[in-house]
Every structure is written in structure tokens, then in C-alpha cells.
């Protein structure tokens, strides 16, 4: 899939390689295993799947619905609403309730499924209106919610559902999938490139695949330089090294050398400061109160940069101050 | 469960046959005796310690390190023992220790009583408890002793009397559960058969007449949700809240008798005067189920409305109101032989679910509903989660209040065990305690969790409990008070806690507006842990104050016109995490609500008044607001109030002269006195003036005319601003093509209008005064 290939209408790879079977879903084995059993046995409970973006929540619900109902019934027996649809209290009272009341002949153990994606963006009022609907029609209709924060779902709804939490994908899980995609798309890559993809995605499969596609579209070759160019984010490992040489060994020269490297590559001060902030929060081997001091210095530099003083001097000053702590 | 009983059966004869060779066969008492007594601290000097002192002492005691190997003990080895834990154990956290004891079958109450068989005592135990131990001669052991006990106790708690009794009780409980489960299954079968014979769908009468009838197609039990499958079918199966359920039943039973008395006779429990009743309580404890069961039990035809129905005032008026004195036709269709409740069968019972879920679109619904509660001709049962909400206040007097509480572990236990037995899941009884804890006593959630987990696991043992409890936890947004409580409590900062920095920052993100304010309000009221002395405390507070003030700078940048929201995490650190880390420790008093809001609005009010004052005095003074406040106001206050205070009524005229000179109004007089601080405080000065003089002053002032400076109306008139802005807005919308000149003219006009208004208001009383003079 190089630049020379003719412009064909091509799906984003995220869609193209979206799993259609529970078997193909990567990660969260235990939960997915449970879903597979549900798909086999039927009688799906109401459920809430919560977790970070890009780890397969929506995909799993779709797969589950598809496997439960089969491709023929899938269209008629599911109702999917996401944040792009109007999901105010009126829709819940009318459309969802009507759907719950409609009769569809389904094999035993199968139920109509209402999929509410991004449920955490529903208003509390609309969620309230779901409560009794979920109970009264539970013999014919089951609900599946996907959300990022389950705390945004009101307690009464949580009480009616089985809550499944999805964890971040492990790096090797992302890697396996990336390799599969690379093979199918005939992508040229090296190990560092994939490493960089995984690093920047932070367990978000969708982001990893998107970045892969953009890198391929832009440069053809997937190596770490190209990936970080696409992602446009200073390499967190460099930043971490920089901060650690300040904190642990008080070696300002080394830190400034690293900073120079980033600066020359053309990263703006704001890029460097924001990723420094992120890295500092989880700096290993440094106790928390010291980390807070480091964050304080970075934060103040962040403020100054935002106020317009985005100079190299500010960054050097920040490093010097961190050395001083 | 089956596993456990089998285990006992296998174990019992073996234990009996063996020679009682210590320690394996010894009774609990013997083993206990072999464990050395712990030293009881001397209590004579510390007779009275306040709660906070105690808390402090506990905080100073070394933190539990959690670095001890808990010996694997025999199952149920502590059964029959009643253990109380007190003080800080050197290696175990108290809750952990209690959980261990519970897991092995011990009873763990919180306080010492005559039944207590052993006390595990740690450092800094409360003096009253120590005294009690001494008085009652209860065996006290240290943590080491507790571990030794675990190691040496035989299974099932040995052969002591208590242990045997406990074991028998446990077995009885198990057999009862099995019986119950079998009975239920029997019932289920009978019901199904009956349904088959009659060819009547079993659940038609279950739902309200307004809902479409259930599909006639039989739904097999296996396809139902567990929560439906195991929903209680009689009031006896409800877990907990027995008292409230009985109250509800008797209220409903006597409803029509009460109606004959026109709801005048309160009756034995005072419920006779209410036409409606309000059930409140957290989700998942069986409120709706209880209401439905009782209503059906007494033969009412249930009409249910819930949050999925529109319940605005007009719809309630058209729908419900007409129903309130109707008769149900359901009664006519019932079979004659079921004539027990014949009278009730033609009667409705209205169940209004989720009353607090009335939201946008349900305009005026709550008010209308509370009206119905006064006039209804049929019983109404309202259900809500939180009765303390302001919108629920309308129901306060008109409804019979029944608060449902979360059922306790014991109340739930039997029910859960029954379900597990019927589903053929082996569950360790101690798991249920954990289930109860993680779900916050929410029965429905427990059943849901079980049904999901059981898809893959048919045996749930004690080992897996830890992973479950974490992933099962319901997540709700914390309230500001809880957030601050967590932040300022030292626990999350201890090196052993598994709270990462990100977790702490997340606490802030639960409520980004209030958390900083609440921290700022409460950061002084802690006793920092590991604080060396007072000066160290002071240093920490200073550091925290520094951080908070720095966070204010960040906040102003975030809320400025530039809207630098990317600074939000930094604000979280500086406003909440860092300062509370400095001062975290025991919170020595109740957590206060942020006072900043009140103070801020007060400040705004004074600013506004000062502005007005400046406009009034503009012709005589030539200074800005600040100078006016600092230089003029104290002097004016003296000259305006001084003569009246010292000379009484004679001082009135000089004061009015001063006011006229500065173009001050009567209201300004009050304002200027209000501005006083310290000894010149407005209230203090006003107290010195007798009421008679004050009224004379007002009268004299009103009876004469006073010069009024033409001044620009400022922010002082709240409405001016809004009208002006609406005019602007309309301009923009309506005539886009208007030239700028027109626009400004329009604006001028509007200003002129409002000014006129203000003046007219002030002129009017004067005219009246003149007339009265004539």
C-alpha cells in the first residue's frame, strides 16, 4: 500500500479490520470469554461495558449482538443509538419504549437488543426514564451500554446491569494485531516503528491502527522517525530520560543535550512541556512529594509558555529548577 | 454449598474417632488458654479522652505494615468464637484481621460484651474497652496470639460447646436453605403445570392494565434474567425492611376504612391520615417489588407510572386525575371462586415509580402529584430514591413516609444462598459478605453479578473474592464532601497505599469546581500525620497556602478569555493534591462547605453599593471607588450617625443637611453605616439609636425634598443591564443591515429609558410628600 497505488475508495483500516466475531477480539480474555458463553447460551443480561477509548467496547457489543441474533435478525432486532443520535428523555420515552414493545419472532433464549453507545453522555433524566423500561420489558428486550466512565451512569441503572470493565490492552496484544494488519496490507516496517506505534497508542488499538495507516499513507515505511513525525509528539522516552537525569543525578548538561535534540527536531515548547507533564506524573523511582515539586515547576513553565514566552530559555530554566529541587 | 456440607459429613466422624490429642482435637477453650495473655495497658491515667484525642493517638501509632504471613488455617476453625478487635495491630490492618476472622467463622462484633470470648488487642486500645476487658475477665491476646490461634485451632472450632453449637446452627441454616430452594422449585413446577392446564399466560395480571399484555408465548424460566426469575413472589421472600413492609401492608389494608373516616383518624400507627405513601431508599433493595407485591396480595389492580412515561402537570391532570375515582373492571373478569379479596378487585392502586426522576418535560409534575395526594380517592404509592432532594419537599406532609433501608448481610445471605443452590453454584458463604460490601447492599446488583460470573465459574471460593470485589464495584461520582474527606485523610498518601498520583488527580476531576474551594476551606482543620512539632505544622500549612494561592493564578488563566483548559491537570495538582498532601492527617472537625461562595456574593453586593454611592456623591467628591471607601466613608459615617447618636432628635437636621450636600438618599445612609467595621460597625451604631429617634429621622427625611444629582445609572440597577443586553440582541437578530449609527442611537435610547425609570421611582414619593404637606 504505497503512494503509487491508484486512489481507490478504501475504508479506514479501523473499519476494514474491525472484528466481526468475538473470537477475533483482542485482549480482556476473561470478559470476552464470558461474552462468548452468553453468545452460545443466549439469555444475555443487561450489561454495561466500561473502559478507555479504543479497546473494543463497541466492537464487542456488536459482535455479541451479531452472534446472538445472526445476520438476518440483526437488522430488525437491534436498536443502536449513540451520542450522534438524539437521546433525550423524549426519545427514551418514545422510540426506545416503542422498540421494546414491538414483537419480533426470535428463537428461544434470544432477545431484542438495544445498544446505547457512549451512554455516559446521556442526561440523567433520560437515564431515569430507562429504569422501569429495562425491567418491564426484560423478557423480550435487553440493554447493552458502552461508556468510558461508568460513574456517569446513574446508580439505579448500574444496579440493573452486569458491569464489565475492560482494561487497557497489553502492548503485545496490540503488537499481534498490528502485525496481522501489516501482513494483510503488505506494509514495510521495522521493529522500532512498531514499538513507537505501540508506545504512542498507550493501549488504544484504534489509535495504533490509525497511526499505522497515516504513517503508511504519508511515508510508506513504518519506522520510529516516521511514526513520531506523524504523531507529532516528542518521544516520551527522551523526555523521561531528560527528567530523570535532572532528578536523580542532577546532571543538567545531559538533560540540556537531550532537550537540544528535541528542540532541533522542531518540537515547540508547548509540545515538550505538555508531554513532560504527562511523564512526570508517573516518573518511577522518585517519591511522590518530589514528583509533585517537579510537576509544580513544569506547570509554571507551562503557564509561562501559554502566556506567550515559548522560548528555549524557559525550558532550560525549567530543567535547571528541577535539578535544584 | 453442597461441597461444604459434604465436607462436613466427611470430616465429622473422623474427628470424633481421633484421640483428643492437643492441639488438633482440643477444644477452643484449651487452645485459648495456651496462648499467652496480652499485656493490658494501664488505664488509670487516661480516664477521659475525647474522640479527637483518641483519633490523634491512633494516627501517631505506627501504621500497619501489612507484612506478615497469614497462616493457612483449617476451615471454620474459629466458629463459635466471638472475637473483638481493638486498637492498632502492629502488622495487620484491623479490617483485614476482621475479614480473616470472619472467613474462618468467627463472629466479629464491634464492641465488647459478656458473650465475647476473646479480644485481640493492639496498640492504643481505647481505655474504656480495656476497662471492660478487665471487669469482665475476658481473655485478651495480642496479634501474635491471634496468628497462633489460627495456626493451632482444629477445623470446625474443635469440640468445645460453643463450637459445636455454632456448627449445628450453620448446618441447620444450610439445610433450611436447601429446603427453601426445593420448596421454591416445587412451587415453580406447580405454577407451570397450572399454567399449562388453564392455558392462561401466567404473568398477565402482573403488570398494569395500561401496559400492553405480555406476549402470550410462554417464556421459559431459563431465558429470564435472574432478577426476574428470582424476583420475590411473596412478601415473605423480601429481604429486610420487614417492619416497613408490614406498615405498608396495614396502611393499604385499612385504606378504605380510613377513607370512610375521611382520613381524620390517625389510627394506631398514625398512618390513617394519609391518602398516599412515599417509599424512599437506595436502588436495588426491593422498593418497587414490595409495593407491587403488597398491592397484588391485597387484590388491587395496579396502575403503574414511571419515569418512562411523560408526567407533566397537564398530562397528569388529564390522565391520572380522571382515574383517581374510577373502578377497575378487572374484578369482573376474575374467577368467582377466588372471592377472598373481592372487594378490592374493583379498586385501583396507583404506583408512581421514580418520583424523583421527574425532570425536564415533566414540568409541574411533582406539584400536581402532591395535589393528587391530598384528594385521591384511591391509594397511591410513590417511590423515590432520595427524599431529601428539594423537589421532593412538596410531598413532605401529604404522604405517609416509609424509608427503606439497605438490608444487612444476614438478611440477604439466605436469599443469595437459595439462588445459588437452585442454580447449582458452589459459593463460599464468606463471599457473600464481600458481595454485600462491594455492591453497597444492593440485592439486585448482587444477583446480576452472580448471574454473570456464573457463566464461566460454577465454584466461587474465597480466593477469587479479591479480584471480584474490585471489578464489581459500582462507580459513582463522589460528592464534594467525600472528595475532600479522602484528600485530607492521610491514608491515600501513605507509601503503602496503592493510590497513584493519577488517582488523586482523578479525585479532583470528580468535581472540578468545588474541590479546590473545599480544600481551601478545610485545609486548616487537620492534624498532619508524622508532624514533628508545631513549627513543622506551621511550615506545612504555609506551604499549602502557597500552593493554593499559586493555583488561583492558574485558575484565572484557565477561566480567562484565553481559556487555557490544558492547564486543568496542573490546577488539580496545585489546588487540591499538593496542599492536601502537605497537611493530610486526621480531620479534627466536621468538613465545612466552601464559604467562598457566600463571601464572594457579599463582596459583590458591597461593590455594587459602593458604586452607587460613588455615583451619588460624584458632584462633591472627585475620587475613585477605593478612595471613597477608604477616605470618605468613615468620616461620612461619623457625621451622618454621630449627631443622632449624641443629640437624639436634635441631631437629625444636621445629618440631613450633610446628606443633601452630598446628594445622598436615605438608603445610602444605611449603606454607609453598613460599611463600618470594628467599633463603627453598622449594627453596633444602630443599636445606640433609639427606635423612636430612628422613625423620627425617617419621617423628617421623607417630609422634605432633597436635591438629586442627575447621574448615570450603573450596575446598581440589576435590570438595566439585562434589558440593555436584550435590546442589543434583538437589534442584531432583526436588522442586520442597520448602520452602526442607528445602533448606538438605539442603545442611548434604552439607557435613557431606564434612567427615567429610576428617577420616576424616586420622584414619586416626594410628590406624595409634598401633597401631604399641603
Set out the fold topology.
The complex is a heterodimer of chains A (325) and B (774).
Chain A: H1 13-16, H2 29-41, E1 47-50, H3 57-77, E2 78-81, H4 89-101, E3 112-116, H5 124-136, E4 141-147, H6 155-160, E5 162-165, H7 171-185, E6 188-189, H8 191-201, H9 205-219, E7 221-222, H10 224-231, H11 236-247, H12 252-265, H13 269-281, H14 288-306, H15 312-324
Helix pairs in contact in A: 2-3, 4-5, 7-8, 7-9, 8-9, 8-10, 9-10, 11-12, 11-13, 11-15, 12-15, 13-14, 14-15
Chain B: H1 2-17, H2 28-34, H3 51-60, E1 83-86, H4 94-103, E2 118-121, H5 127-136, E3 139-141, H6 143-152, H7 161-198, H8 226-229, H9 242-253, H10 255-260, E4 276-280, H11 287-297, E5 301-305, H12 313-323, H13 330-333, H14 342-345, E6 348-352, H15 365-375, E7 380-384, E8 399-403, H16 409-422, E9 426-427, H17 429-438, H18 443-453, E10 459-460, H19 465-472, H20 480-488, H21 501-510, H22 514-522, E11 526-528, H23 534-558, H24 568-583, E12 585-587, H25 596-616, H26 625-647, H27 652-661, H28 666-674, H29 682-688, H30 691-703, H31 718-734, H32 740-773
Parallel strand pairs in B: 1-2, 2-3, 4-7, 4-8, 5-6, 6-7, 9-10
Antiparallel strand pairs in B: 11-12
Pfam family, one (chain B): AAA_lid_RFC1
Region (Disordered) (chain B): 11-47, 153-213, 735-774
Biased composition (Basic and acidic residues) (chain B): 169-179, 748-765
